[in-house]
Every structure is written in structure tokens, then in C-alpha cells.
Design a protein that fits this description.
By secondary structure, this protein is of the alpha+beta class. The protein has one domain. It contains 2 helices and 7 strands, in the order ββββββααβ. Strands 5-6-4-3-2-1-7 form a 7-stranded mixed sheet, with helices on one face. Helix 1 packs antiparallel against helix 2. The termini are far apart. 27% of the residues are buried.
Amino acid sequence: METLKMTLEMIPSDPVEKGFPDWQMAFCVRGELGAVSFILDTRSGSSDVSYHSYKDRGQYYTEVENCPFLEGETCYCDGSIGRGISVANTLRARGSFAVFKCLAEQYNTVFDTDLELEQQSFCFA
């Protein structure tokens, strides 16, 4: 059975200012049809949830070449700042695994599937 793959990356987003780097936390769940990502800027607190599809899904989706969430493939992407705020609140209240569960629910809704998250654990040094 297909499962959704989870990834979490810390990405430097801007040059270091006054000795403090600006980082983005990039959460992603990916399946055969596409991906759903959540980006949180650690300095400003701004956030976004985006949907990445291998196929064009309509007027609100923008074509993006070399999509990092679909392993460099071209994707059709749509985002939501409002959902980003909701997911950021989930991260603060319930932690990172709750974010992955939320993204998995959104993946299943957007792509009309019923997939579960892969069994995986994270370790940060």
C-alpha cells in the first residue's frame, strides 16, 4: 500500500544579518500524485501551506519548474497563507508530528485519496 513520505528540512533563506541567520522550516508530505508543504519562516513567523501537483489542477495553480517538493519535477502549485497560520498554530500547540498529520489530511482532501503517513522517526543532532 502506498504511504505518504514525510520530510522536514531547515533551509537558510536570507544572508546572516547581525549574526542571526534567517531559516525556514519546510515540512512536506509527498505521494504519487503530488505533495503538500508547510513553510515557516523562523524569524518573521510567516507561514504558508502549498499544494504541488504533477498535473494542472485548474486556474489557481501556477506552473513551477524544478519544484523542490517533487524532486525537481515541474509542478502546478497553489498556496494558502490562511492555512499556513492554522498549521503554524498546530505546530505551536501540538508539535511537529501533528503538522505532518494535518498535511496528510490536506493531501487526502486535495488529491481525493485515503493514504496514511509512512512510519518514520526523526532525530536532530
